Amino acid sequence: MTRVTATRERLAAAREIKGRFVAGGVNVAQWARERNLEPQHVYDVLNGRAVGRRGKAHEIAVLLGLVPEV
């Protein structure tokens, strides 16, 4: 898998997750606060500004289901 393909797949998955938030009537900021996370960090992961390979971004990506837990 190329880097571009991986990025596209990740962004497609993020769009799907955003759709689940909308369908469930929960906004991202509320979801983040319920888990003691900074809403901006969650938005960064969902919008591709933070990859989620390590640290807090990785924790968020795992909680969102974007990457497997290691």
Provide a concise account of the structure shown.
The chain has 70 residues and is mostly helical.
Describe what you observe in this structure.
The protein is mostly helical. It is 67% helix and 0% strand. It contains 4 helices and no strands. α2 (28-34) crosses α3 (39-46) and α3 (39-46) crosses α4. The longest helix is centred in the N-terminal third of the chain and has 22 residues, at 3-24. The protein is globular, with a radius of gyration of 12 Å. The two termini are 20 Å apart. The relative contact order is 0.15. The mean pLDDT is 88.
Q: Helix/strand/pairing class, anyone? A: mainly alpha
Number of strands: 0
Number of helices: 4
Q: Could you tell me the radius of gyration in angstroms?
A: 12 Å
User: What percentage of the residues does DSSP assign to strands (E)?
Assistant: under 5%
Shape: globular
Q: What are the SSEs and their pairings?
A:
Elements: H1 3-24, H2 28-34, H3 39-46, H4 55-64
Salient structural properties:
globular; mainly alpha; 0% strand; 67% helix; 70 residues
